[in-house]
């Protein structure tokens, strides 16, 4: 099942620079997209979400961009900090889905070097 | 900040045995979920639960699996006769609303090891 795909398994960025994590999807029924961060031995922690009727949502250092025609979204972290080092998951859900299930991408491991 | 708690953090069980994984969702949340992540694979949806019944289940959630909310605070996942391939991290999640952009909040997971 490749409905949500994160093509980069890892990304390394210098502290203070921008981190850009990408996510592609194939299911045009998805209405909401969410980003989660995961540290080892912990569960995923919600970061930011975006509705399909928007193309941008910003929360502090985190901005998510959605390009619906390309079925592509990205998470920008500016400036990147060493504490941002974690695995980032993109997830999607469809409003007409009774169970509100999330479909996850495979994750991107971000390493922010001091 | 309120959080989802899961016990135990690690469960080791012999193949064929029953196992119950426990979760305490956030107290004012009404929607509950189980996901699993096999080592090296994606996080996969298992089941969602609302108003004391299953809202949706995936193909993984076969007759060996069941969920229950035995009281006002706990939410459990039971695997009746475990198989080797059930070894995975199991995450419980809860949300206040069903609307898609209202986040699901995850516990830290139970690592299930089947021998």
Task: Write up what this structure looks like.
- The complex is a heterodimer of chains A (114) and B (115).
- Chain A has 114 residues and is mainly beta.
- Chain A has a single domain (4-113), classed as Immunoglobulin-like (Sandwich).
- Chain A has no helices and 11 strands.
- In chain A, strand 6 (56-59) and strand 7 (62-67) form a beta hairpin.
- The relative contact order of chain A is 0.33.
- The mean pLDDT of chain A is 94.
- In chain B, the strands form 2 sheets. In chain B, strands 2, 4, 5, 6, 9, 10 and 11 form a 7-stranded mixed sheet that branches. A 4-stranded antiparallel sheet of chain B has the order 1-3-8-7, with no helix packed on it.
- The model of chain B has no long low-confidence stretch (mean pLDDT 93).
- Helices cover 0% and strands 50% of the residues of chain B.
- Chain B has one domain (5-114): Immunoglobulin-like.
- Chain B is globular and about 35 Å long.
- By secondary structure, chain B is mainly β.
- The chains are: A mainly beta (114), B mainly beta (115).
- The interface between A and B is medium-sized, with 29 and 31 residues.
CATH superfamily of chain B: Immunoglobulins
Tell me how many strands of chain B there are. 11
Which shape of chain B, going by the Cα principal axes? Answer: globular
What is the number of domains of chain A?
Answer: 1
What kind of assembly state do the chains in view correspond to?
heterodimer
End-to-end C-alpha gap of chain B: 37 Å
What top-tier CATH class of chain B fits best?
Mainly Beta
Main interface by residue count: A-B, 29 and 31 residues
CATH architecture of chain A: Sandwich
Q: Please bin the fraction of helical residues of chain B.
A: under 10%
Low-confidence stretches of chain A: none
Secondary structural class of chain B: mainly beta
**CATH fold title of chain A:** Immunoglobulin-like
Which key terms come to mind for this protein?
heterodimer, A: 114 residues, mainly beta, Immunoglobulin-like, 6-stranded mixed sheet, 5-stranded antiparallel sheet, 0% helix, 53% strand, B: 115 residues, 7-stranded mixed sheet, 4-stranded antiparallel sheet, 11 strands
């Amino acid at each position: 099942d490749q409905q949500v795909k994160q093509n980069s398994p890892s990304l390394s960025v210098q502290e203070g620079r921008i981190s850009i994590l990408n996510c592609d999807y194939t299911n045009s029924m998805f209405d909401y997209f969410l980003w989660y961060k995961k540290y080892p031995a912990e569960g995923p922690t919600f970061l930011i979400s975006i509705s399909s009727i928007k193309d941008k949502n910003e929360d502090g250092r985190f901005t998510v961009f959605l390009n619906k025609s390309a079925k592509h979204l990205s998470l920008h972290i500016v400036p990147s900090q060493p504490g941002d080092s974690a695995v980032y998951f993109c997830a999607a859900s469809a409003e007409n889905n009774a169970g509100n299930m999330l479909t996850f991408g495979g994750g991107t491991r971000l390493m922010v070097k001091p | 900040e309120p959080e989802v708690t899961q016990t135990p953090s690690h469960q080791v069980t012999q193949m064929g045995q029953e196992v119950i994984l426990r979760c305490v969702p956030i107290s004012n949340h009404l929607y509950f979920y189980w996901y699993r992540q096999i080592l090296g694979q994606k996080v996969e949806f298992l089941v969602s639960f609302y108003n004391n019944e299953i809202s949706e289940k995936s193909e993984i959630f076969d007759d060996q699996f069941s969920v229950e909310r035995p009281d006002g605070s706990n939410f459990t996942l039971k695997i009746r006769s475990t198989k080797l391939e059930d070894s995975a991290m199991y995450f419980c999640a809860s949300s206040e609303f069903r609307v898609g952009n209202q986040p699901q909040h995850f516990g830290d997971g139970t690592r299930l090891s089947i021998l």
